[in-house]
């Protein structure tokens, strides 16, 4: 098992492996190389070939329902302030505060270099509630159409540092997982949203895996039900097993998720270079955060908070006290990180894009 782990790139240490290993002391030894939430769960290709259902996926992921590890590799007691390694020393960390787009002075990404958002669907699903902190949608069959990421000059993902006329190659990204943070991780002009969804994708360039994470803010101020999240809710609101560790709920075969239903209609986005927002906080992640939030109800946000079993902390310590006091003290958002001179660009879709 150690051999298998050593063959993998640092942030390729998968949650599957962490979970499978966790029955013993190996997790303690390997804890420092365990993948972060943004990068992790990938079922090994050989096993993937045999997985078609959420049931299979759960079996591979946790071995048996409710029987996962209760050994948090890290927690949110200090909202990540106590995490070590790159989390402490990195200079291009995430999340960050993003400026408003009113009268924006952000450099813009030319229309010839915009991300192409087609469709993303998932079947053979499982909903995983991880022992440390979060709700994650896994699928044995992610399927994308016309969802493509621009790459300029062979390695400039998102074409962030390229002139407007730079030749571009569009690459299909594969989906790793969809997971949620509450409160939001990125802020807008210093303001938090109730939650933030992360769609983790990867593209391979010259044999190297590169993560591109799409962030969607979830705004509770209008208390409007999010239909996509409703579809997940029945798999996360069973509190009876929450203290046991990772819990995986298979989703019936006929239930498919269309991720486009979660993303905002207007796809104007911020783009910048950052990191995983969980240990080991690996850098080299391209972040695409939509400027428009989607809506979520207070009840739904409560359900999300409740599912974050091991993140409990006093409201005095969390980043948005007002929400904490309403919803209870559970957050899994990392503290904001300094920009350190990084450039944030804006990719605009249409005139009504603020
Ligand atoms: C996949 O399933 C086949 C048939 O059940 C089995 O022989 C094979 O060992 C499985 N492969 C893996 C990687 O589990
Ligand atoms: C909360 O913050 C206080 C003051 O900064 C600190 O003393 C305490 O250890 C923190 N509690 C946790 C659980 O991080
Ligand atoms: C944007 O510019 C308009 C017109 O100059 C001004 O009225 C408005 O206050 C500005 N908005 C921000 C957020 O600076
Ligand atoms: C995978 O998803 C695609 C698109 O939804 C669907 O057409 C196909 O039947 C699915 N395959 C399996 C094995 O479920
Ligand atoms: C949000 O809406 C629900 C009904 O969907 C209602 O029960 C609840 O009281 C509302 N919460 C607030 C804070 O307005
Ligand atoms: C979980 O939520 C769903 C609706 O999203 C509801 O149908 C189901 O009864 C709830 N289960 C529990 C245990 O509360
Ligand atoms: Zn995340």
Structure explained in plain terms:
The chain has helices at residues 2-7, 15-21, 26-30, 45-48, 54-62, 86-89, 227-233, 298-307, 321-327, and strands at residues 97-98, 107-109, 119-129, 135-145, 148-152, 156-157, 168-172, 174-181, 187-188, 195-205, 208-219, 247-250, 257-258, 269-275, 283-290, 294-295, 345-347. By secondary structure, it is of the alpha+beta class. It binds 2-acetamido-2-deoxy-beta-D-glucopyranose (NAG) (6 copies) and zinc ion. One 2-acetamido-2-deoxy-beta-D-glucopyranose binds next to helix 7. It is an enzyme of class 4 (lyase).
CATH domain class = Alpha Beta
CATH architecture: Roll
- Please compute the radius of gyration using only Cα atoms: 19 Å
What structural class is derived from the secondary structure elements? alpha+beta
Main sheet summary: 12 strands, mixed
CATH homologous superfamily annotation? Alpha carbonic anhydrase
Could you say what the CATH topology is called?
A: Carbonic Anhydrase II
What proportion of the residues form beta strands (DSSP E)?
25-35%
Attached small molecules: 2-acetamido-2-deoxy-beta-D-glucopyranose, zinc ion
Distance between the termini: 49 Å
Helix content: 10-25%
């Amino acid at each position: 098992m150690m051999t298998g782990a050593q063959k993998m790139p640092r942030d390729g240490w998968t949650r599957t492996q962490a979970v499978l290993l966790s029955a013993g002391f190996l997790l303690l030894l390997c804890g420092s190389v365990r993948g972060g939430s943004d990068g992790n769960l990938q079922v090994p290709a050989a096993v993937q070939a045999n997985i078609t259902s959420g049931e299979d996926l759960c079996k591979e992921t946790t071995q048996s329902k409710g029987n996962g590890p209760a050994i948090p590799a890290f927690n949110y007691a200090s909202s990540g302030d106590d995490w070590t390694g790159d989390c402490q020393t990195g200079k291009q960390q995430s999340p960050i505060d993003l400026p408003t787009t009113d009268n924006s002075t952000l450099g813009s990404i030319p229309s010839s270099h915009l991300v192409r958002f087609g469709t993303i669907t998932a079947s053979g699903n499982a909903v995983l509630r991880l022992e440390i902190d979060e709700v994650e949608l896994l699928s044995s069959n992610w399927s994308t159409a016309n969802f493509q990421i621009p790459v300029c000059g062979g390695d400039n993902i998102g074409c962030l540092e390229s002139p407007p006329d730079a030749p571009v190659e569009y690459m299909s990204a594969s989906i790793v997982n969809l997971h949620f943070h509450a409160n939001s991780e990125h802020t807008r002009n210093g303001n938090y949203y109730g939650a933030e969804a992360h769609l983790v994708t990867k593209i391979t360039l010259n044999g190297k895996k590169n993560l591109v994470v799409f962030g969607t803010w979830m705004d509770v101020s209008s208390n409007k039900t999010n239909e996509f999240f409703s579809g997940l809710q029945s798999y996360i609101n069973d509190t009876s097993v929450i203290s046991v560790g990772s819990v995986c709920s298979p989703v019936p075969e006929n239930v498919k998720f269309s991720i486009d239903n979660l993303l905002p209609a207007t796809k104007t986005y911020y783009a910048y270079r950052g990191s995983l927002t969980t240990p080991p906080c690996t850098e080299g992640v391209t972040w695409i955060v939509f400027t428009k939030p989607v809506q979520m109800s207070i009840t739904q946000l409560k359900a999300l908070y409740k599912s974050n079993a091991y993140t409990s902390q006093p409201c005095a310590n969390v980043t948005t006290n007002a929400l904490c006091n309403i919803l209870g003290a559970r957050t899994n958002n990392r503290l904001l990180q300094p920009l350190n001179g990084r450039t944030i660009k804006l990719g605009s879709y249409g005139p009504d894009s603020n």
